[in-house]
Structure formats: C-alpha cells, structure tokens
Amino acid sequence: MDLLQTKGIEKQFLGVKALKGVDFSVKAGEIHALMGENGAGKSTLIKIITGVYPATAGSVYFNGKECKFRSPLDAEHAGISTVYQEVNLLPDLSVAENICIGREPRTKLGFINKKKLKEQARKALARLDIDINVGENLSSYSIAIQQLVAIARALDVDCKMLILDEPTSSLDENEVKELFSVMKKLREEGMAIIFITHFLDQVYEVSDRITILRDGQLVGSYDAKDLPRIEMVAKMIGKTPDQINQMQASIVKNTKFGDVVYEAKGIGCTGTISPVDLNIRAGEQLGLAGLLGSGRSEVAQMIFGVDPHDSGAMTMDGRPVNFNRPQKAVKAKVALIAEDRKVTGIIPDLTIRENIILALQASKGIWKTLSPKQQEEMTEKYIKLLRIKTPSGEQLIKHLSGGNQQKVLIARWLATSPKLLILDEPTRGIDVGAKAEIEALTQELCGEGMAVIFISSELEEVVRDCDRVIVLRDRKKVGEIAGSDISLKNIMKLIAG
Amino acid sequence: MKTFKIPLRYVPIAATISVFCVVYLIGIICYDGFGVLSIFDLLQDNSYLGIAAIGTALVILTGGIDLSVGSVIAFTTILIAKILVAGGNAFLAISLALALGTLFGFCQGCLIHYFSLPPFLLTLAGMFFVRGCAFVVNVSDVPIKRDAVFDFVTDNLSISIGSEITISFYVVVYIVLLIAAIIFSQRTRAGRNIYAIGDNELAATLMGIPVGRTKIMTYTIAGFCYALGGVAFAFYLKSGYASHCVGMEMEAIAAVVIGGTLLTGGVGYIFGSFFGVLVLGLITALITYDGLDSCWSRIIVGLLMLVFIFMQNMITKISKSKSKSH
Amino acid sequence: MKKMSNKYRHLVWPLASLALLLLYNAFFTEDFFKVYVKKGNASEQTQVVGKKDNTPAAQQPVAQPTEQQPPAEQQPVAQPTEQQPPAEQQPVAQTAEQSQPEEKDGGFSIFDYHFSGTPVLILKQGSEVMLLAIGMTLVIATGGIDISVGAVMAIAGAVAALLMDMFEHQLPASAMETGLYWLIPVFAALLLATLCGFWNGMLVAGCGIQPMVATLVLMVSGRGMAQLITSIGRSKPEQITFQSEQLAFLRNGYVLMVPCCLWIVVIMYIIAGLLTRKTALGLFIESVGNNEHASRYAGIESRRIKWLAYIICGFCAGMAGLLTLCDTKSIDANNAGLYLELDAILATVIGGTSMAGGRFFLSGSLIGAILIQTLTATMIANKVDSSIIPLPKALVVIIVCLLQSPVFRAKVFSLFASKSAKGGVQ
C-alpha cells in the first residue's frame, strides 16, 4: 500500500553526513507532513526523492519498483511532482501554457491548437475546483493562484505523488483554506501528498501522518491524531519529557540593566510578521525562541531594516527612528549577523581582513579610511579572539569552512562597537568549542553594556544565557518570560500553544 | 460606461503601433508627396533590416543578444557579388550564402550553450570574425551584375499592383518570412519554448523544456535570417561590399526594442518588430524628407528606445506588485 | 613572497601574451623595437596609422536605408607603421649648433627632442583605449557595463571642436596664441562627458535598469547628439577642424621626450589608483560587484557606488574623446571612438577583471590595452591588410571568454586529469 518507500537512505556531503539511514514511507491517498528543525535533513531527503542528486547509500522505491532518478524531470515522468516555495513557473506566459508547455495539443499540421490547449488547462484546474481565465499571463494572478496552477500542472502530467514545499508561507488565511480544500480533494482521489511546513497549526489541520527528522535521522512517523502537540515539539528539538522538566534557567544573573536601548511597539510587516512589541535594555540579553519558521529571523530583519516594517513605531535611545534600510540601522549602531551568511554575509572573493573591516569602513564612508596598520591589528585581534582557523588574514573568505566564515562575520560586526547586536543563529555549523567561546563572548559583551538579541534553535543556549525570552509561533509573538520563569518547559508550552 | 482596458501584456505592442500611426500621420499631414503608397516605399527600403530583425528578435526572446548582424549581411553581399563576377549563377551564390550564414549561427549557438559564454562577448567575436572574413573575400566593393537568374527572380517573384506599384521580391520574401516567424513563435512548441527560456530559464529546465537544443536552434535561425537579409540587401543595393552595414546590429536591436520586446527575454511579439522596423524607417525617411540632418533620427530612435525601456520597467513593477498584494 | 604572488597573479597571462607578441616582433618585424630620438617637441601631425583601421570601414556612417549607398566610399588611405621608420632615419640629435634658436645653454636639452619609433607610436595610439579602460574597469567591477563610451567620446570631441573653432573665428590670432582659451573647450568636453556618465548612472543605479540596456540608449542616440553639436552654426553636421597648436599638444606634443598623451594616461592611472586604493572606494566597488546584497547588509550605499563608477567612466571617455580630437585636429562625429568600447571591454577582461564583477585590476587593464594595440601594430607591420585585423581580434575575444568560462575550464582540467591518470608522460 505504500506508494513511496525509502530504505536506509544516507547522504554524505564533503565532511558532513546529512542523512544517516532514513526509512520513510508514504501511502497513496494520504497527506503526510514532513517536519524537522535546522539540519534535520528534510530538504536533502526530498532532493534525493525527486532526483536532484543521488543518495550515497540506500534505495528509493516508488510504486513498488526501485528508482534511481537522475533529474527532477525523471521523477516527474515517474509520477512525482514538486511545487516549490518560489513557484518556479513562467510568469510572462499564459496560465494555459504554464500548465501544458512541452505537451501542447497540436493540430494535424503540427501547430498548437489554442482551443484545445485552453480546454486542457481548464480541465486540469477544474480538478481543483478552480475556474479562471487561462489566457491571462500567470503573473497577473496572486501567488496563491500561481501555486494552484503549479499543482494543476502536476496533475496534467499524471502525477501520483505531490510534494508541496512550504506552500503556505506567502498565503493569507483564506488562501490557506482554499489550498487545504484542494489538498483534501486530491487526497480523496488517491493522490499522495508530502507537505513540508513549519506552521504547527496547519500541520494538524490537514495532515494524516507526521514524520519527524532530527539531525539526519528518523525520529519517527506517527498518526497525527495520536501525537499531542507538545510531544511533537519535544521530538523535534530532541528532548525527552524528563530532560525538559530538568532544564531550568541557571542562577539569575545581574539584574542591573541600563536604560532602554531599543523599543518597538506594534511593528509588523504585512504578510511576514504580525505586529510585535519588544524592548531591550543596555547589558541585557534578549532571546527570541521558537521553531524554525516561526518568524524570529523575520523580526530581526525587520528591526535591522532589511524588511521595512509597515506598522508600528520604533525608538533608539528614546528617539524615534525608522530603520527602513540597513544603512540607517548601521549608522545608529545596530548590527545584525544574519542567518544565511552566503546571501547576506560574506563577500566571497574578498579577504578575511576586508570582510572584517567592511562594516566599520562602511560607517566611516569613502574618505576616512582605516590605515593598513589598523586593519591588520583588527584582523589579528579577532582571529585570535574568535579562534578563526586560517593561515593568514589575507586568505579569501570563500576558502574557509562555514563555521569560520561565521566567526569572520561576527568579527565584522563586533568591530563596529554596536549598541545593539542581533545574533541570528550564531552558533549554527560551529564546532562545540567555538560555540562555548561565542556564548562566553556574548556574556562578556552584555557585561560591558551591549544589548544583545539572541536567536537560536538550541533552546538550552537560550535558557542558559538569556535574561528575557520572547516566544514566537507561526509568525506571531505568543509570550514573553523573564528571570526565573525561563525554563525549557515554559518555552515549549508557549510554542506548542 | 464601458471602459476599454488593455491587458498589461499587450501594452507594449499597442504602444508600438500607436507610435507608428502617429508618425505616419505626421508624415501625411506635413509633407506633400507622402501618402498611403509610401508604405510600399518604406518596405522596399527596409525589408533587409526587417528580415534581419526577425532573427535578432528570436535571439533576444531567448534572453540572449546577437551583435553579428551587420557583419553577416556584409559578408553575404560581397560573397554573392564575387561569385557572380566569377561566373557562377545566382542560385549557387544565394544558396551558398544562406548555408554559410546558417552554419555560422549554429556555431555561435553551440559555443554559447556548451561553454556558457556570455552572448554579448561571443557574438561580438562573431562580428569581428565575419567582418574580417568579408574582407578576405574581397577588400573593395563589387557591383552585382544582373544575370539571367537575377532577372528571373526580380521580375517574376515581385508583385505588381496596377501600373504604379511594384512590390519587389525581397519585400515578398520579408512578408512571407514574417508570417512564418509569427506562426512559428505563437503556434509551435519550439516557438513557445523560446519564450519559456527567455522568461525563466531555470523553470523551463525544471519543466522539461530542451533548453540547449532550443537555444542553438534560435541562433541558427538567426544566422539564416541575417544571411537572407544580406541577400535582400544585395538585390536592393546591387552592390557587395565588406564595409556595408557597419553598426546595423544596433538598428536591429532598436527595431526589436521599439517593437515591444523586452531585452531580458520572454516577452514580446515578432509582429512588434515589424512595426519597429517601419517606425525606424519612417523616422529616417521623414527626417530626410524634411531636410533635417540624419543625426536627428539617431537621437529620436534613442529616445524612443528609452521610452519603451521605461515602459517595460513599469509594467514589470506593476505586475510584480499585483501578484504580491493579493 | 606569497603575498606578492597573490597580488600580481592576474598580470601573468596578459604579460606573458604581450611578451610572446614582442618576441615574435623581435624576430619577424624589422626595426620594431627601434626607438629614435627626434627633433622638436611641438605637436606633430601623426599619420592616420593603424588606429582607425582596427574598425572595419570606420568611416562609413550607419547605413541610411533611404539613400542609395554609394558603394565606393573609400577609407582614407591608411598607411601602416612600416613607412615611418624609413622616414625617420634621423640619427640621434647632435649638439647645440643644430638645436632650436631658443636654446640658451649649449648641449643636449631634453625639451627639444622626443622619442619616436614603433613602440612610442603604439603607446600613443593606444592612449584612448587605455583611458577608456580605466572607467570601464570600474564599471565592470560593479557588475555592470557601459557600451556608450564611444558615443560619449564623440560628444566630448564635438563640443571641444565646436568651441575651439568658434574661438578661432571670433578672436584675433594673437589672443589665441597667448591666451589660455584652449582650456575652455577642454573643460566643456569633460563636463559634458561626466554628465553623460551621470545619466548612465541614473538609469542603472537610480532606476534599476539593466546596464547594457541602459547604456544602449546613449550608444544609439549619443552619436546623433555629437553630430548635432557639429552642425551648430553650420548648415549640416560636418567635420570641424581647429588650428590651435596648444590644444593639439595634448595629444601630439611631447613633454620631457615622452608623448604628452602618455603623460595624461599615466597621471589618470595614478589618480585612479590612488582614488581606489587609498580611499575605501576600491573596496566598496569590489564588494558591491561581488555580492551586492551582502554589501548593503554591511551598510554600504551600493547605489551611490555604482553611480560613481558610471560618472568616472564618463569622465574617462571625455578625456579619450579630447585626445582623439587632438590627434587629427578634427572630429568626425560618425567615427570618433567607433567600436572603442569593445576594445575597452576586451582590455578590462584580459586584465583579469571578471565580467561578473568583483575584484578589478587597473594595471591589468592597462596591459590589456597595450596588448590589443601591439597586436594591431604587429599585424600592420607584417603587412596584414588593415581590414582583416578584426579576425585575429575575434580569436582573442573567444580565447579570453573560454578561459573565463568555468564550464570550459572544468572540461579542460578533466581532460588533463584523465591524461595524467592514465600515466601519460609529458
């Protein structure tokens, strides 16, 4: 009865084992949610199933036969279709063409039969109970409709298993409802659907079974109705109930904080984050806790000005500010070390030294340069302080390991002596020793009066080090705990809801 | 009251046609001797550009660009002239020229696809290369003699309407090619694939469209079009010269842009390039008529291009915000 | 030692190729390396050698469809360099008796003599491309491109020529000789060219239009504007000529035995080098070109940096336009700087700057420009017809593209790897 079955899938990248023997199965006629935190291996597993790259070991069975797909196209021919988060269709071609391109119905002379093309498209959409003008360009429709067109295309190629990768991130409530009714309809017709999402509420609304991965291993597959929320959250972060009860905040530290450095009231970004209140004082370490996708990074980006807020107001040192561009935040001595260092962090072909001094130099402008001596001293200082593994400061940053690149980014922002430092997953991909160093470093910075917003999926770190914790779920702030109330149990209760 | 709303995707070509009508009206109103019949003159003088522009349009639709247009035309003219002088017949000359042009396009396409070379630089090299080859064929200009085949073609393949109007054969060729290109781009799978690649190459690959094959095919067709344009030019001017059409690639690109095609690919109509060529020709004709310097045509064409580029920019922004705001 | 090799690694290929070319010339071209010392330091009319012949039929205006194209438009007869050395068989200048009457003290004075010979000629004729390459390198480094520099050259030259000609007709000859009127056309030309750069920057950085598309507009309309300028006060656009020796000195004169235009190139490179390496501008340009998103995250005003690059490019094009004007003391709006943008791009790419943006190498672009000019001169000296010169240029472009293509490099390396794996002996 299993439509898809994977046995012992392993995937080895250079030096990293992303999947360590995963057995995963999906039945026809079910909606199966695939969940996991960072580094769990979800996307790797899906990429192997859809043929983006091959597994290092193990096998995939589809429809009873073993498959070795060499490309997503191969998988599509076999009956597995994927709808990506960014939709990945052709915006300037019509809806009908998007659904049928490559397979357009032709007249006897070999020309495309436009009438039949539109009919074919309409039929595919009708299976989803959708009726739109298929002659219009795809880009004139909302993302929600575009997604449904992508699903219609999958249906048109006779798809037996549909993989939806984070389909609801850009949808509003009504659109989510519509998507779910479509999914349920398809399920009735016998389609297998793998549903990847971070929205906990949605998982329970629509899934039949839930599979949880952690650290490249299968934690388990459960029927949704038999898995209480809090247990699911516990399994995702890898803690047993006992461990949860035991983990308390360490000794309540120094409660003498300075003035409020930054305050935001009701800042939100439509479609991304619901309005949030937060404030932070000098010397305080504020944690943002929540599962992956709960909106922590989005809050950070909103504060820093990458995603300008469209509601609410913020103040810095008591004066109203409007950070709608990173440059403004930087000038006001705010620093953000973002999660995705490739896109938002490193300048790959520049040296370590250049990457370190970049932000400080940017704040000084073109004319006031740091002398070569100053640059060298700074580079040496941070290489030592953060134990960056490199033969010299003139090494190109792209040759460093991920963890060391992260350290260079931390150095970059520390060099600007910020008043407010936002760390988004600073310890991701860093070895244990360095993690401890960074933790100690943040404590030290707080001791010196810096305000630090600390985002981490490792909830023990949050519990251990933070003076206050704001908890987020599904892009909303659901609670705030301080002082001795900070415990893993309390945080998880808020997350699970 | 019914409001007439043009779907966003038709705005550029509507603009092109409007510009053409406006300029044409200006011509009729302001100048004697400029009448409805002038359209035929326009076609007469510009069909070589139109034929070449079809090839350019197809390449630009895939998201690429081709700078070798002028060189291939020049090469074709000098090759034909030389063969005729050497005693060959027109058939041989034309066939050889077309074959070489197509082969050249094929080579460009292969290099661009298999080595992921930037089309701008590669076709730049192609431009230099073919121009040099043209000079190798013959350094000075060679007039094209009329031989029996030549006369046959010219007399029998052109259409006469009444006693005044003769539609030369190369105009006929242009119209035929234009219709074929329109049908190809709108009603064949290969044609739609061209649009897909230009719109979002990654998505096209994921959707199973044969990207490499289509790209190479496009450059090959373009090479054929340029060679055919060269044949038309040779018949029109009756001279072969390796220095012909210097800078013509910019005219072809301008015609395509003014015709409403986006330079990043995926958007635009071949039909638009037809009007783009006419607009270009009209502007030049009117300016000459008026006794103004030809420099004005460059300035106006540049301005028109700017307007269309901005328009495309706006349209893209509007449709992006539309899909976001839902 | 390691530090050095990293910094200069990009120069290896261009220098090696240049060395190869020079080696070839050493064997196969007579008198290629002979440098003469010649009398005089004033402007000398250089023959139209080689430079304009890089471009096929450079004198042909854009084909006008409505006029019958007179097919027999002749290029001005371009005499290759080989004619020069025989004409300049002057031995090294003698003593004071033969020197200029203005000589107060006896003996050899460097102010009265200058170097000449093929190497000098190459450097002189390459000076426009060398200047263009400065601006082009910076623009390409930001991840953009500027294909309008040729047209901007024409505009700058046209303005300067127009003004100079006006002055010469309005003012008495004595005023012209002693006054500094020639500075005004220079200033006007540079100002206008910089404005063109500002315009390009506005389209690219301000409006977010793709660089090639944005600069295409000026490329098409710029020559028309240059022609318009040359038609002011006249019935139609024509080649404007001026007489002033002072202005022409910029290109054809010699200062301390070295051509003045070469001094200008050197000074511009020094200024550009200081501007980019002694301030943070170079760092910002490289950062923006390499990863614009991350640069903005770091607080760099990427828009301003890109805008600035286009402004500098316009200025350099203005300087190049002035030089090309002073070369023949006349400006032909149709042909001034025709296709030179392509040479500038080629020089930049040869010099090690990637078309994708990021790290740039002004020294590399300089060598690249010299390489291109040497290639042209080599071919002319070896009696290759000037019109066929584009052919080898095409090959150079293709080779450079292939070398920069990661796909090609991967294929070549895998070929070598399999050869060595099979134990192939070398």
In brief, what are we looking at here?
The complex is a heterotrimer of chains A (497), B (326) and C (426). Chain A has 497 residues and is of the alpha/beta class.
CATH topology of chain B: ABC transporter involved in vitamin B12 uptake, BtuC
Name the strands of the widest sheet of chain B in spatial order: 1-4
Shape type of chain B: globular
Query: What portion of residues of chain B belong to β-strands?
Result: under 5%
- Described by the principal axes of the CA atoms, the overall outline of chain C is globular
Instruction: Provide the succession of SSEs of chain B.
Output: HHHHHEHEEHHHHEHHH
Q: How many beta-strand elements of chain B?
A: 4
Structural domain count of chain B: 1
Radius of gyration of chain B: 20 Å
Class per helix and strand makeup of chain C: mainly alpha
Strand count, sense and barrel status of the largest sheet of chain C are: 2 strands, antiparallel
Average pLDDT metric of chain B: 87
Query: Which sequence of strands runs across the widest sheet of chain C?
Result: 1-2
Unreliable segments of chain B (pLDDT under 50, ≥5 consecutive)? none
- Structural class of the helix and strand makeup of chain B? mainly alpha
**How far apart are the first and last residues' alpha carbons of chain C, in Å?**
29 Å
* Biggest β-sheet description of chain B: 2 strands, antiparallel
Bin the helical content of chain C. Answer: 55-70%
